[in-house]
Amino acid sequence: MKDGKTLILAIESSCDETSAAVVADGRTVLSNIISSQIEIHTLYGGVVPEIASRHHLENINAVTDRALSEAKVGLDDIDAVAVTMGPGLVGALVIGIAHAKAVALASGKPLIGVNHMQGHISAAYIENEDLEPPFMALVVSGGHTSIVEVTDYNRCDVLGSTRDDAAGEAFDKVARVIGLGYPGGPKIDMISDEGDPGAVEFKRVFLEKGSLDFSFSGIKTQVINYVNSRKQAGREINPADIAAGFQQAVIDVIVTKTVDAAVAGNRDRIVMAGGVASNRHLRAAMEEACGAAGIRLYRPSPVLCTDNAAMIGCAAYYKYIKGEFDGLSLDACPNLEF
Ligand code: KG4
Ligand code: ZN
């Protein structure tokens, strides 16, 4: 399918997912192939950067070929090649970038480097034709937790961020402490269905009054201390109750701050983005709080919340129409900010 549309081939390899997608006019996903390495990293209890790089290298050609064939297009039909340039694991990013450069050079198409976090936010455009900036966004992933005001496509102001652990990092660490293993976020999401969120109370950390920053390392320590003190006393722990209590404490803080930010900034729309935004309990709590505050909530489907290349193709489109291209000197920026 081309029909006068702008087609972008997008590549994402910032962590442990090798993904390629073809996106038309920034909003229509023609293909979105995601090759997950979760099973491999589960053996080690977390992502091992060198292993992630090796698997990206092994998979990226096949994943790209599949993205093109599923979209029923060839490289000649593509208008630009987009790739995640950061933030992420440097060894993982360079594989996607080298691959995208090679494809761009061989096909003579322009190259567009995309900020992974802008990509996460852009995922919301895919299923919501009416959505356009400005709006408030909550970005919650394995590496970031931020409230940002999106003022234009690919432009935003960070109003608050985590001062220590990202929310996803806290989910992953707590899951390990209570014996759930990796990947922690989805496991806590599931097991907490069987737990009582009020059985073990964890302190909500709101920081100074009016602050939109977050801190999740304290709650992680609370969980560790609770588990250790139970074990020392020879008492059992109930992982489902701990998971539910921890998750509820994190959700209460995230939801309160995000809705406060939207109300204070006079924004009547909130976009949820990033891997943790696929958490069912967070999605439900945000829906309820936004409903009460008269705010419209945009929640991308779970597959568009976790890492994928379609979101990169979407963000790249808005750089494409502004003529914001990159040269072959494009480099990985592991610590890239918004
Ligand atoms: O956005 P993402 O796929 O990768 C990064 O850019 O970091 O987010 C991954 C993070 C991991 O920490 C993972 O545990 C968390 O998102 N996550 C979840 C859920 N699904 C993924 N956290 C809570 N509940 C979930 N259902
Ligand atoms: Zn991500």
Please describe what this structure looks like.
The chain has 338 residues and is α/β, with parallel strands linked by helices. Helix content is 43%, strand content 19%. The strands form two sheets. Strands 3-2-1-4-5 form a five-stranded mixed beta sheet, with helices on both faces. The chain has a five-stranded mixed beta sheet with strand order 8-7-6-9-10, sandwiched between helices. A hairpin with a 2-residue loop joins strand 7 and strand 8. The radius of gyration is 20 Å and the shape is globular. The structure holds 5'-O-[(R)-(carboxyoxy)(hydroxy)phosphoryl]adenosine and zinc ion (ZN). 5'-O-[(R)-(carboxyoxy)(hydroxy)phosphoryl]adenosine binds next to helix 5 and helix 6.
**What Rg do the Cα atoms give?**
20 Å
The unique ligands bound to this protein are:
5'-O-[(R)-(carboxyoxy)(hydroxy)phosphoryl]adenosine, zinc ion
What is the count of DSSP helices, taking H or I runs of 4+ residues? 11
What is the CA-CA span between the terminal residues?
A: 33 Å
Strand order of the largest sheet: 3-2-1-4-5
Averaged pLDDT:
96
Helix % is 40-55%
Globular, elongated, flat, extended or rod-shaped: what is the shape? globular
Strand content: 15-25%
H/E topology pattern: EEEHHEHEHEEEHHHHEHEHH
Q: Sheet bearing the most strands, described?
A: 5 strands, mixed
Number of strands: 10
User: Helix/strand-derived class?
Assistant: alpha/beta
Which residue ranges are poorly predicted, with pLDDT under 50 across at least 5 consecutive positions? none
